[in-house]
Protein 1
Amino acid sequence: MIFVDRSTVAPPKDLVAAGGIGEKENTRARAAFQGVLPGDKQSSVKFNFVAYKSVSVRAALETLFGSKCAYCESSYAEVQPMEIEHWRPKNAIAEDGKLTFPGYWWLAATWENLLPSCIDCNRERSHRINGRLTKAGKACKFPVAAGQRSTPDGSICESPLLLNPCHDQPSEFLEFRVDGTVIPKARPEGTDRATASIEVYGLIRPGLVKARGGLIKALLADMGIAATCLLELAQDQSSDFKRDLTSKALAKLESASTPSEKYACAVRQMVQEFRSDPFRFFDRVAAGEL
């Protein structure tokens, strides 16, 4: 997960235009959910949200995230259609394995609440994680710290435990390893948010870890070339070939860590560690520090 500046893409007109499908749907939803109290174990309101599915919304999300999942940074476009994810769930909220109603229905057509997702991050599915069959995937989960939840009148009285790539800097919370795993970053605060995000989004599901680790390990070759050349150049500055080889290896590393690339947050962390001390980097990898 990497920070994405939502302001770089204009909100879809379908959602923000006066009299548009977003405004009309919100008006109907307010009438349908009037008087419905939060925390019900079941809901008699059946509302069909469709505004968020518009072509303009899909196109804007594709542009904003470069056809990557907002949570795991996998390139879903290669194998599956994008799923439009409501960060705050629209229909119901899963708490302690049970659904409570209603969800954040008033945010169903709100641009800031929509994110692109792959199937495994968006849907709750079974994965064998650390030898155990475990369910992972966001679905209707939206854990918050102690306190009341936000309300339709616009009051924000909750502290979400999940990281939002458009609000937070995930790199401040998540620490990626060379093998593709991810753990909460050691910091005075924020561990609960990192832990919840890793678990709910399923950021350590085996297939994802393998793909992320495979990309990092492939880049280790370029890091090795750059480190070797830098060492030799430190002893002899006369080799234009070594200098050119170093520049190409470093350029490839920088390219792989740009936000538009897969697993950019993990790669960027590795590149930063390498560039901070190229000569000790591989010793740290061998010692299990990275």
Note: The chain is about 40% helix and 10% strand.
Protein 2
Amino acid sequence: MKTEIKTTNVQSQGKDSKCSPLSSLYCNLKINVTGKLKDNDLNKLYNCSLCNSCHLATFNKGTREKAVTKSLITHHVAEIRKNIMESGNSYGIKTVKSKSSQKTIETLLFRGCTPTHKTPEILAASESLLKRKGIKYEIMDDETCCGNLLFNLGDTGSGQDAVRRNIDKFNAAGVKRIITICPGCYNAFNKYYRTQNGFKPEIILAVDLLDSLTMESEDLMIQDPCHAREKAGTLRKILPGSQNKSASPCCGAGAGVMAHNKLVATKKARKTIENRSERIVTYCPFCYLNMSSVTPDKIVDIYMLLNDCLVDSPIHY
């Protein structure tokens, strides 16, 4: 996507600007009438995590897309785009890629940006569980971002570039099924890749492969992530003693909020955690990353929890 980038000077760090559902409506109207948005407008627009509790997530996302097409691009959107284009991940972390020959991959474990670069403990636990279950898979050394975040930021052009780049790799390797750890990747493959010609792999969220495991515990509450709420039943089958409701509609960090306004993401996470006696179980690496930064001892990842319990054997197939 070769669009001139005119980044705004929105300085969100340290500001606690609330995101009202009306902000999306106001910004959409303003951009349609004037073709412009002030920095404060963009700040509020991107303080939204697109959890859809207000039922305006689609509207907000559409407004972001209009802003980007008019080159009204905040610093964090431009930075994330650059990171993915240049480093292959949203964090801009440089990695050394091995020059291995092209191989055929029937089942691919798509590790994702956050498990690979920010929560390697979740990645390690996931791989350990898959191996314990006898599930054979391979990885790509040159894996690049699925693009889900770009679409949520309204940068659909760059998102489509990421989709095309990955589909070319998957087709070349003959991938038939893709296992994801991150619900965001799971969402992207099902929502943005399915519409592309030549993309036919089966998409599996790793937790679905563990539904034969059960662990009894009464001090757990599950945090259902925005991009995999349909898996809520699977988690409660694995953890039958957990609280039946979700800890929160959203951890507060999604759709770029953590990069745009860390204070908002942290405040939302703290509100979810405070005054709870139960430990909160996540099955989204990004939820885990945000919430564990607030209270590490109260947050546990499902893959890490199951893997640790298998060592002690109080778990059933």
Note: The chain has three domains: 21-87, 107-209, 210-312.
Protein 3
Amino acid sequence: MTIEVRGLSGDRRFRAYVVRALGEALDRLRVAPVSAQVGFADENGPKGGVAIRCLLEIRVPRRPPIDARHLAESPRLAFDGALTKLDRQVARDRGRRRQQSRRPKKYYLARRALEGEPGLSRTA
């Protein structure tokens, strides 16, 4: 998997932190991602204020891309906020998939109803 960091000039320690933290977060995904991009942008230039935007975009095979954004005063705070949002999205998606796999499918239920298993009614 490729992790690409854009818009972050100079600070090699922070770039290493970004790659390491994102790699640990992506290890929790069920399917291995193809690529990950981290982008930083200063929204209002040298004026200051809450202006650093961090965008995380994860590409997973046969799925739409997962993205998370956060706006903060510094690149570190923006990245940490976006990473927190990404963790929540991954946990929510994992929970949704777990619930879908636990529900019996309609054909399975129909077969059980036709066999006359107790507790299932044939009324529609």
Note: The beta strands are 2-6, 35-42, 52-59, 66-72.
